[in-house]
Design a protein that fits this description.
Layout: H1 7-19, E1 27-30, H2 34-40, E2 52-56, E3 60-65, H3 69-73, E4 81-86, H4 92-98, E5 105-108, H5 114-123, E6 128-131, H6 133-140, H7 145-164, H8 175-188, E7 193-201, E8 222-231, E9 234-235, E10 238-244, H9 249-267, H10 275-288, E11 300-302, E12 309-313, E13 326-329, E14 332-335, E15 339-342, E16 345-349, E17 354-356, E18 365-367
Parallel strand pairs: 1-5, 3-4, 5-6, 10-18
Antiparallel strand pairs: 1-2, 2-3, 7-8, 8-9, 8-10, 11-12, 13-16, 14-15, 16-17
Helix pairs in contact: 4-5, 9-10
The structure holds zinc ion (3 copies).
One zinc ion (ZN) binds next to strand 8.
């Protein structure tokens, strides 16, 4: 991956400023988290001490605790951002309130802690408060070339992990044991951190957000493996389905339906389509096969600095897809108490169609059940 051009942060900040008026805002206020990383490259820790980026029409300021100044200096924060440090005994919220100005409209980032926001609202009483989510997601949901490069690298890294999963799925091992091995592989494959590891064997696969448990793998189990981490801040997220030994006909046939639905949805992605239409393609194929009620969730979610962000691929979302949008296509079919299957790729909208960032084979993968638990 090519090094990131720090000038990109300046461009993003100016874009955010230029959109304030359209959103009826005088300021946008964000705390530590993905919005701050997106706008400044500063991965600030979320502390009981206030860190706040305030984007106003004519200036951008970052208020931060004095003890964080050295760490902030190492981040690619553009020179145009005015740094204001607050000392341990200073009233940081009071400083922030004073810079808002009377009667202004303030958009607040969705992870700005209540412990700061509520006193701020009390001190700056005549301001109007609203979520900054619409303005921020409008910026973040279309990825630049350098962001797509990072998502691509994350996709390759998680594909490498899936290639090694079959060797871990031996009858007699617990889901926890398998999940621990996968977590190590996620970092070995080049991720900076592990975000989550789902190993759902047999009936546990039918619960979409099951993580892992003490359940021991049995011959014939279907196993949903949904895993993700971060590469240079950008998330991977990929699901494949495995079977320990020979698959039952029901598992085999359901997987064939799922694979066709997932592929049809991926191939339907192109600029100009809506998020809702993509959801409909996946849902229709599964419904026609008689499993509509068993597809319990939306088809996908946007991905970037956060695992789940805009655009959501869900019925009723009329967001028009644009080049650079990145999201998952992950239909699932769940038989409660028996087994579940989910198939997930991350895709990016290109100028004419779609690029899939996950190349791991989409088939149901047979894992050799081995000779019982490893010694
Ligand atoms: Zn999820
Ligand atoms: Zn996933
Ligand atoms: Zn996902």
């Amino acid at each position: 991956v090519k090094p990131f051009d720090p000038a990109e942060y300046g461009t993003r900040l100016r874009k955010a400023q230029s959109r304030l008026e359209d959103h009826g805002l005088d300021h946008v206020l964000v705390g530590p988290g993905a919005d701050l990383r997106y706008l400044t490259g500063y991965d600030a820790p979320a502390l009981t001490r206030l860190t706040a980026l305030l984007i106003s029409r004519d200036r951008v300021g970052l208020l931060l605790p004095e003890l964080e100044v050295q760490r902030a200096a190492a981040a690619p924060i553009p020179d145009a951002v005015e740094l204001r440090r607050h000392r341990e005994t200073e009233d940081a919220v009071g400083l922030l309130a004073a810079s808002l100005g009377p009667g202004s409209a303030v958009g607040v980032g969705d992870r700005f802690w209540a412990r700061f926001l509520i006193p701020l609202q009390q001190q700056a009483e005549d301001c109007d408060w609203m979520p900054a989510e619409r303005l921020m997601s409008g910026l973040r949901r279309v990825k630049s070339a350098s962001e797509v490069a990072r998502l691509r690298a994350a996709g390759r890294a998680i594909d490498d992990v899936h290639a090694q999963v079959p060797a871990l799925l031996r009858a007699g091992r617990t889901e926890h044991e398998v999940a621990r091995d996968i977590a190590n592989l996620i970092t070995d494959a080049g991720h900076d951190e592990v975000n989550f590891v789902i190993v759902g064997s047999g009936p546990n696969g039918a619960s979409p957000h099951h993580e892992s448990s003490d359940r021991r793998l049995k011959i014939g189990d279907a196993v949903v493996v949904d895993i993700g981490g971060r590469v240079e801040g950008y998330c991977s997220d990929c699901t494949r389905n495995y079977v320990v030994g020979q698959a039952r006909a029901a598992v085999h046939d359901t997987h064939a339906v799922l694979k066709a639905a997932q592929q049809a949805a991926v191939e339907s992605v192109r600029p100009g389509r809506t998020a809702s239409e993509i959801d409909q393609v996946a849902r229709q194929a599964i419904t026609e096969a008689g499993h509509g009620e068993r597809f319990l969730h939306r088809t996908g979610h946007g991905i970037g600095l956060d695992e789940h962000e805009e655009p959501y691929i869900v019925a009723g979302n009329d967001t028009v897809l644009e080049e650079g949008m990145a999201f998952s296509i992950e239909p699932g079919i769940y038989f409660e108490g028996d087994f579940g299957l989910r198939l997930e790729d991350i895709v990016v909208v290109t100028s004419e169609g779609v690029e899939s960032l996950n190349r791991a084979p989409h088939d149901l993968v047979t894992a050799d059940p081995g000779n019982g638990p490893p010694s």
